[in-house]
Design brief:
Blueprint (H helix, E strand, L loop, with lengths): L4 E5 L4 E2 L4 E3 L5 E4 L6 E3 L5 E10 L5 E3 L2 E9 L2 E15 L4 E5 L9 E3 L8 E5 L11
Antiparallel strand pairs: 1-2, 1-6, 3-4, 4-5, 6-7, 8-9, 8-12, 9-10, 10-11
């Protein structure tokens, strides 16, 4: 299965919809209007985010840049969950997607998104909903 991506345009502050392609050469292309021709686009004006391959508890696909909330259970007390919230990021060092709680001021740093003990829900993304990352 091929990885899925989404693209945010920094200039227009909106998602590119069905117009961007990443070719095998790794260059980002966009279909020109009224044509089948693909033209390279400036990566400095766009942010490319990969899907984690996971879906949240509502069936919404989770991408890098998403803000999610979830519950975790302490291994010593499986009856009392606590809520976590953070930004989905990719770690090249660990080759995994993770939830970065430092982005909202918590001391805990990394929760693997692949763990089955979480019940995540996508509540927004870093580009449209930055206020969700503010410390309460």
């Amino acid at each position: 299965m091929l990885p899925k991506f989404r693209v945010w345009c920094k200039n227009r502050n909106e998602w590119e919809r069905d117009t961007c392609y990443i070719q095998q050469d790794g260059i980002l292309y966009q279909r020109s209007k009224g044509s089948e021709r693909l033209i390279p686009i400036l990566e400095k004006n766009h942010v490319v985010m990969q899907s984690t391959g996971l879906k949240d508890k509502n069936g919404v696909e989770i991408f890098e840049g998403d803000i999610v909330v979830g519950q975790q259970y302490l291994t010593t007390d499986l009856s009392t969950p606590f809520e976590i919230k953070g930004l989905v990021k990719y770690s090249e060092r660990n080759t995994m997607f993770y939830l970065d709680e430092k982005s909202i001021g918590h001391d805990k740093f990394m929760y693997s998104l692949g763990s089955s003990i979480y019940q995540y829900e996508v509540i927004g993304n870093i580009y449209e909903d930055k206020e969700l990352l503010e410390v309460e």
